[in-house]
Amino acid sequence: MSTIEQSTKDAIGQDAEELLRLDGVKKYFGLRGVPFRKAAAVKAVDGVDLVVRRGETVGLVGESGSGKSTLARLATRLLDPTEGRVTISGQDVTTVRGRRLRPVRRKIQMVFQDPQASLNPRQSVGTILTTPFRAQGIRPSRAQLIELLHQVGLSEEHLERYPHEFSGGQRQRIGIARALAVRPGLLICDEPVSALDVSVQAQVLNLLADLRDELGLSYVLVAHDLAVVRQVADRLAVMYLGTIVEEGPAAEVYAAPAHPYTRALLSAVPVPDPGAARDRIVLTGDVPTPIDPPSGCPFRTRCYKVQDVCATVRPVLEPVAGGDHRAACYFPELSSPPTSERTP
Ligand SMILES: Nc1ncnc2c1ncn2[C@@H]1O[C@H](COP(=O)(O)OP(=O)(O)OP(=O)(O)O)[C@@H](O)[C@H]1O
Ligand code: SF4
Ligand SMILES: [Mg+2]
């Protein structure tokens, strides 16, 4: 094996450095002030295990309300977990707070969904880009700020401008530059393109891919649009009602989704082969409330394969067909989904 092949394998193989590890992470939001529901809580994230290794792009997908943003905030320690452990580059940071979070912020940064809302309209781009340096006690040079702008396809003349003077795509580039300022190894991008026009989405995704190659970055890319994640993810994790129901190498999960929920989600995504379309699985019923999720399998109220056992104990992620493709289902699908000829 050549050195390049070996280093590529090491970069995203099982032995590559773990940049992020979540063990049994939960986040319950209390429902104070709701009559008769004193003990009730929104189980936004309900026991997630996830590992992100150096060089990987992990796509995190799921319907609205499945807990993706909450998980992103837990991973970046913007939220305290109710239970579980958060480990960043080998260091347990679950209870680290305040100034002691500074070194953590150098390793992991977040890009937010809505660049309009996440950039202070009263600050110039220069001030916005200076903030993460200052949080680390560093005074950046003008050259450093210009280099950041160049990295995201902007230029020196943008330094003195304000967010409202930019397009949505450019604003997101500023958000990415801000996240890159302190040279993190891992970016958690929460729906980084969903607030943008379709025509601009591809440009921002291409930028993220270029930065990954240039800077050796790893990403967790949160999206509800599977077609977006498909372009860039090495691994895929599928969330439903606060839990990960399937995860594995993206190509394997796309080709042969094992969990009925993933199968339903993917059946709605266009396939690259124009001659074939997957048989569409229509999800019926609403997503149950995370205040009172179903017993056993969280997906059982909408599942086309449900049986009695599914209401008993929650299934855990188990390997399907060997390797590190895993699904949390008592009756996983073990073959590729059927396709039907597209009618002209
Ligand atoms: N601060 C909070 N207090 C109470 N409930 C919350 C809070 N933040 C999130 N939730 C609830 O937690 C659940 C998960 O929310 P979250 O924003 O993580 O989902 P999401 O997958 O990111 O959804 P979307 O795709 O719409 O962004 C939802 O039911 C949401 O209403
Ligand atoms: S465990 Fe049962 S209800 Fe849950 S996804 Fe599998 S078959 Fe469906
Ligand atoms: Mg969200």
UniProtKB/TrEMBL annotation:
<dbReference type="InterPro" id="IPR017871">
    <property type="entry name" value="ABC_transporter-like_CS"/>
</dbReference>
<dbReference type="Pfam" id="PF08352">
    <property type="entry name" value="oligo_HPY"/>
</dbReference>
<dbReference type="GO" id="GO:0015833">
    <property type="term" value="P:peptide transport"/>
</dbReference>
<dbReference type="InterPro" id="IPR050319">
    <property type="entry name" value="ABC_transp_ATP-bind"/>
</dbReference>
<protein>
    <submittedName>
        <fullName>Oligopeptide transport system ATP-binding protein</fullName>
    </submittedName>
</protein>
<dbReference type="InterPro" id="IPR003439">
    <property type="entry name" value="ABC_transporter-like_ATP-bd"/>
</dbReference>
<keyword id="KW-0067">ATP-binding</keyword>
<keyword id="KW-0813">Transport</keyword>
<comment type="similarity">
    <text>Belongs to the ABC transporter superfamily.</text>
</comment>
<keyword id="KW-0547">Nucleotide-binding</keyword>
<dbReference type="GO" id="GO:0055085">
    <property type="term" value="P:transmembrane transport"/>
</dbReference>
<dbReference type="GO" id="GO:0005524">
    <property type="term" value="F:ATP binding"/>
</dbReference>
<dbReference type="InterPro" id="IPR003593">
    <property type="entry name" value="AAA+_ATPase"/>
</dbReference>
<dbReference type="GO" id="GO:0016887">
    <property type="term" value="F:ATP hydrolysis activity"/>
</dbReference>
<dbReference type="InterPro" id="IPR027417">
    <property type="entry name" value="P-loop_NTPase"/>
</dbReference>
<dbReference type="Pfam" id="PF00005">
    <property type="entry name" value="ABC_tran"/>
</dbReference>
<dbReference type="InterPro" id="IPR013563">
    <property type="entry name" value="Oligopep_ABC_C"/>
</dbReference>
<feature type="domain" description="ABC transporter">
    <location>
        <begin position="20"/>
        <end position="266"/>
    </location>
</feature>
